[in-house]
Design goal:
209 residues; mainly alpha; Four Helix Bundle (Hemerythrin (Met), subunit A); 8 helices
Length: 209
């Protein structure tokens, strides 16, 4: 649980460290705050194992992250019709990277369910290899979507810290100890803490205006 909270707070910290009052209004900042919470959840999924007793908790958190990501994706479409221009041919590459990350996340979660996993991979070792590779591709797409948009991470050292955070989340445990095994269900904690992080993300930017 502590690592889940640490991941959420670390992502929030990186977005606020340089220009904490930079914002685009409650609507946009809230929607983007949801996106950063989704990315933090994705990072935590990448650092935790989904085997044994932890399998159900890992799967539930995966669905929670997918739900938050879906909220981020449809937030702007519901509240700002002009955003439709960003998903048409000719849209910025970082938008297509975000869409790709969303698709890969959906594939990642559903192919990890036992009923589908067993059809695709008879051996667990092979499944684990492909599942982890797909997770890296998902994080890469989502990470590029965030960095290349250039708004909340507008300073070069923020980008460096953001990349270092991703590397630490994915590989840090391998250098120190074994990957985290979370036998409790962190999805409820993730959603509650995520709401608080979104409120901080948007509130700091808008209450200070």
């Amino acid at each position: 649980m502590q690592r889940l909270l640490l991941t959420l707070l670390s992502v929030l910290f990186v977005t606020l460290i340089a220009t904490p009052t930079l914002g685009a209004g409650w609507l946009w900042d809230t929607g983007n705050g949801v996106g950063f919470v989704a990315f933090a959840g994705l990072l935590y999924l990448g650092r935790s194992e989904g085997s044994g007793k932890n399998q159900q908790a890992h799967q539930l958190l995966g669905f929670a992250v997918l739900g938050v990501t879906t909220t981020h994706a449809y937030w702007f479409l519901l509240f700002d019709a002009a955003v439709i221009e960003y998903i048409k041919p000719g849209a910025p590459v970082y938008m297509w990277a975000g869409i790709l990350g969303f698709i890969l996340l959906t594939v990642l979660i559903f192919t990890g369910l036992p009923e589908y996993r067993l059809r695709l991979h008879k051996r667990y070792a092979i499944f684990k290899y492909w599942h982890r590779g797909l997770a890296f591709a998902t994080i890469a797409g989502a990470g590029y979507h965030i960095v290349a948009s250039g708004f909340y991470l507008s300073i070069s050292f923020q980008v460096v810290l953001f990349v270092m955070l991703i590397i630490a989340a994915l590989f840090g445990d391998q250098l120190i100890t074994r990957r985290e095994v979370e036998t409790r269900q962190p999805s409820a904690m993730y959603l509650v803490a995520g709401v608080l992080c979104v409120w901080l993300f948007a509130g700091i930017r808008n209450f200070s205006i």
